[in-house]
Amino acid sequence: MNVVVLIFLVSSCTIGSQLLLKSGINQIAPVFRQEGVVPFLMSAAMSPWVLGALCLQVLGYVLWFFVLTQARLSVAFAISGSFFYLLMAAASWLVFSEKLNGWQWLGLGMISAGVLIVNLADSARTG
Which residues cross the membrane (predicted)? Predict the structure, then answer.
C-alpha cells in the first residue's frame, strides 16, 4: 500500500480517536466538577466513547508499524503531522463548530508548505 495512504489512515485514526475522546469527556465532565478526579477517571475508563477512542488509537499505531517499514521516520512524521493539523482543524469545525482565525489558518498553511518542502527534498535525495 502507498505510504502516503497509510499515513493518511494513521492520521484519520488519530483524528477519529480525538473526536470520540472529546465527545466522551464532554459527557462526563460534570463528574469531575461534582465528584472529583477519581470518580471522573473511573467514568472515563468505562465510557464507550473513551474505549472507542482507545481502539482507534491502537489501530492507528498498528498502521504506523507499516508506515515505518516503508518511509524514513522524519519524513513520515512530518507528513503525518501536516495531515493531522489540517484534518483536525476541519473535523473540529465540522463536528464541534470550532473556528480558527486567519493567523491560525496561515500557520497551518505554513506547516503544510514546510512538509511539502521536506517531502520534495526527500524525493529528490532518494531519486
Answer: 49-68, 75-96, 102-121
Assigned C-alpha cell, 126: 532518494
Count of residues in the chain: 127
C-alpha distances out from residue 34 to 28, 31, 39, 47, 72, Å = 10, 5, 9, 17, 47
Enter the C-alpha cell of residue 92: 473540529
The cell numbers describing 95, all together, are: 463536528
What average pLDDT does the segment 55-66 reach? 97
d(CA 123, CA 127): 6
Quote the distance between the C-alpha of residue 124 and its chain's center: 28
Residue 47 has pLDDT above 70, yes or no: yes
On the question of pLDDT at 126 being above 70, the answer is no
Q: How many whole angstroms separate alpha carbon 24 and alpha carbon 48?
A: 8
Alpha carbon distance 111, 82 (integer Å): 6
The pTM for the full model equals 0.76
Instruction: Categorize the per-residue pLDDT at 123 as very low, low, confident or very high, splitting at 50, 70 and 90.
Output: low
